[in-house]
Design brief:
5 helices, single chain, two-stranded antiparallel sheet, 6% strand, mainly alpha, 2 strands, 124 residues
Length: 124
């Protein structure tokens, strides 16, 4: 599992870990029941505090992406298709918000943005 920490990012390190592991799960690169690296192992690999990794794993568990079995480790949870679809929707929504913001900065009116969106939808 390859996780890259950006120390110059404004996003807390534990959130960077959460987002990257969620992305790997959503993309199918981490399949259900796959064991995640141990908290200590990942903290050594990333050269960060074990408490930071623990916080990330706890958040993943709260969100339903990971299950932790005490004494055995953390595992990718059984896939909940609704949860995965909601994550996909959130990503698409964020991308669309960026696109609309960019169009407005360029001076496009809402109607022009809708027309462009409709054109793109027709081509797909």
């Amino acid at each position: 599992m390859k996780i890259i920490i950006n120390n110059s990012s404004q996003q807390p390190i534990y959130e960077q870990i959460v987002e990257q592991i969620k992305s790997l799960i959503i993309a199918g690169e981490l399949r259900e029941h796959t064991m995640l690296p141990s908290v200590r192992g990942l903290s050594k690999e990333l050269r960060i505090s074990a408490l930071t990794v623990k916080k990330a794993y706890d958040r993943l568990e709260e969100e339903g992406f990971v299950t932790t079995v005490h004494g055995k480790g953390s595992f990718v949870a059984s896939t909940n298709q609704e949860l995965l679809m909601e994550e996909h929707r959130k990503e698409v929504e964020a991308d669309l918000e960026v696109a609309v913001r960019r169009a407005r900065i360029c001076g496009m009116k809402d109607e022009e943005i809708r027309e462009l969106f409709d054109l793109i939808m027709e081509d797909e």
